[in-house]
Amino acid sequence: MIEELGADLDALQAAYERRGLSPAAARREALMRLVPAEESLHELNAQHVPRTARWLKAAGIGGRVERFGAAAAAILAGTAVLTIPAGEAAVQGSLFLWAQALIAALLAANWCRGAAGLWIMGVLPPDVRNLFRARQAGLITGAVSLGGLGALWQGYMGLGTLEASPDLVWHVVRPAVLTGAIGIGAAIFGALGWLALLPRLISDESSERRIETLLTPSRLQRPLDNAVE
Amino acid sequence: MRTTLSKRINELLVLAILEHGPAHGYQIALAVEEWTDGLFSFQHGTLYPILHRLEGEGQVRGEWCGEGRRRKTYRITESGRVIFRAGTTELEEQFRALFALFGRTHAA
């Protein structure tokens, strides 16, 4: 659409110039004819949003389905982390496990929100996109930090046991390693989820930049046009 | 689905231009202006929703052509031709009825 608009805009400007208009006036005329006003943009958007989004919007449940999906993913992810048999057995009673489950759940919920926005609703507005990115980065950092801290904490707590019975090394090391592994695992899944959305995010941002480039010169020209004419 | 009269006229204007051969979006906009002596013109990007709707309905077909700076060329399809003919006939009947009514009003 942007490519089509950009090419048509330049060609129409050239056609108006051939009719005797100044380049600035020709550009303004072409912009007035071709650049969609808000109403036309809404119409175009309505034509290009995915069918699922149209159906959800028509049913009036778009936002609720998105929120429900994110909550379900969060519950599932939290439950999955908490029920990892080895992890549960090894770090039973650890507060870090609960915190890690929470981080994993939030990562899953954030990813689902982003994915639903992009592929079901068809759009992720810039502010939501920035929020998605910041949350995902924060949660990944949180997962790694929590895993590291948890591993250190488990090791520190096991020092007493180790002094009393040096044979129990594995008993001390295992929960520490598992806590760290869960943290790194959650971070890797978060990063992979991010990577899965990245091509679409980059494509959306590139489209927005092209729209900005297309329209900025016309905005800058307006005051000059008025001054000249 | 019934569309409003102005929307229908806009669609028929686009189809009428494309009946004469393939054209880019801007050429359609220019041709409408020229052929109607400026009486009709597409403003504020209203052309694109029409073109994309007609494309979605299979009445026109858009194809990208050219190298480097590509342009989209639209051409009317067979189904578009049938709809165009039916649409112009329907519009003609509607206007005839409308002007018959205006005539009676003037006469009265």
- Fraction of residues in β-strands of chain B: 5-15%
Order of helical and strand elements of chain B: HEHHEEH
User: Which ranges of chain A are low-confidence, i.e. pLDDT below 50, for 5 or more consecutive residues?
Assistant: 218-229
Molecular shape of chain B: elongated
- Write down the Rg of chain A: 27 Å
Which architecture of chain B would the CATH scheme give at its second level? Orthogonal Bundle
Mean pLDDT of chain B: 88
Could you characterize what this model shows?
The complex is a heterodimer of chains A (229) and B (108). Chain A has helices at residues 2-18, 23-34, 38-48, 51-59, 62-82, 85-90, 95-120, 126-164, 169-228. With 229 residues, chain A is an all-alpha fold. Chain A folds into two domains: 2-47, no CATH class; 52-214. In chain A, helix 7 (95-120) runs antiparallel to helix 8 (126-164), helix 7 runs parallel beside helix 9 and helix 8 runs antiparallel to helix 9. The longest helix of chain A has 60 residues, at 169-228. Chain A starts with a helix and ends with a helix. Chain B has a single domain (5-107), classed as Winged helix-like DNA-binding domain superfamily/Winged helix DNA-binding domain (Arc Repressor Mutant, subunit A, Orthogonal Bundle). Chain B has four helices and three strands, in the order αβααββα. Chain B starts with a helix and ends with a helix. The model of chain B has no long low-confidence stretch (mean pLDDT 88). Chain B is an alpha+beta fold and 108 residues long. In chain B, helix 1 packs across helix 2, helix 1 (5-19) packs across helix 3 (47-56) and helix 1 (5-19) crosses helix 4.
Features:
A: 229 residues, mainly alpha, 0% strand, B: 108 residues, Arc Repressor Mutant, subunit A, 4 helices, 13% strand, elongated
Describe this structure in a few short sentences.
The complex is a heterodimer of chains A (229) and B (108). Chain A is an all-alpha fold and 229 residues long.
